[in-house]
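Example (one chain per record):
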Amino acid sequence: TCSTFTNNSEAFLASAAVGCRWCGVCCNLNIQLHLNALKSSPLFSGPTKCLSCALIALLVCCCCTAAVGLRQLMAEFRAANSWIEDSALFDALRQREDLAGMPWWEWPDALRCRKDSALQEAHTQFKQHIDEFVAVQFLFDRQWRAVKVYANAKGVKIIGDMPIYVGGQSADVWANQHLFELNEETCAPDNVSGVPPDAFSATGQLWGSPLYRWQAHEAEGYKWWAHRMARALQLYDETRIDHFRAFAGYWSVEATEETAMNGSWCVGPGIGLFQALNAQLGAVPILAEDLGVITTDVVNLRQQIGAPGMVVLQFAWGGGTNNVHLPHMHYENSFCYPGTHDNETAVGWFADSANAQDKKYLKAYLGSDGSDIAWDFIRAAMASVSNTSVIMMQDI
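Predicted structure:
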């Protein structure tokens, strides 16, 4: 590690130059040039900027012998992660002066449609930016995996969080246009994601992410999803998939709409996607975020793949005795939360959002006087039959 030099890139550079004496002044000058350029790069900011700059300067300076082994590992990382080339090029293009702030579907045709000649020209033009981007990803991957190994050795598992959709202004969509519901002429999204109006929102939620063209995914054996899940499994022990219900059925809204009020339900990929993932990856440890209006098809799909669902105590006190979030309705294959990261704290919810009837029911059910609601919820979560309870730090 190089933590000694976190705030002193020049000291790090000097130590590296000792190992570069075979390259002489030329090598040290090349590293210094890289370092000076990187210091003004938007890729780096914050307290670790200096260390990041020095490390990247070493990695991208090919004539430097101080980091030969590290560069070899970076080359192996780059070869094993095909997604990184499109991500790096996309990052470079979106920052190009004439393209900055512009969605990729408004780029010049040759770039928008990914013509080979245009991509090759861009790769040449932005080679240094691309190499720096790859180096950042490599260093993060290396450091994160070290954290994960350490955590696992201490008996701690890491749960990742994956939104089911990806943003339209992304390398994922730009590089895989046939897998998303995009307009054939303009490449802009035709239909986008969201949820219809419910008790929480009179106009629904319009997320705006392009929808998947599921037939195209199926025709490719869900390869894109297998790559996405494989990467998640490298980084986490389990992955929570947000809006799991869309695998069974999803709300489709025309991209021209300003709210999610007008839309239609469409059938998701269902069990076929998960069978393909299991065939390609083996067991895929998924936590299903199945909150909101959940229908029988969603429950059946979750049970078919053996994924745990979620129950949230803040949602338990309305809707009668059959409310799935009430402790007597909990089931073993689930995660029990007092509240999630999207909720208020237990104290804030009890003081500001819970109505009088909710409070009365809660106190009677939990045998509480309401004076320490956060720990009442924590005790109830820990006592639940759910296999796992998750407590937000802010509730503790």
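Caption: The chain is about 45% helix and 10% strand.
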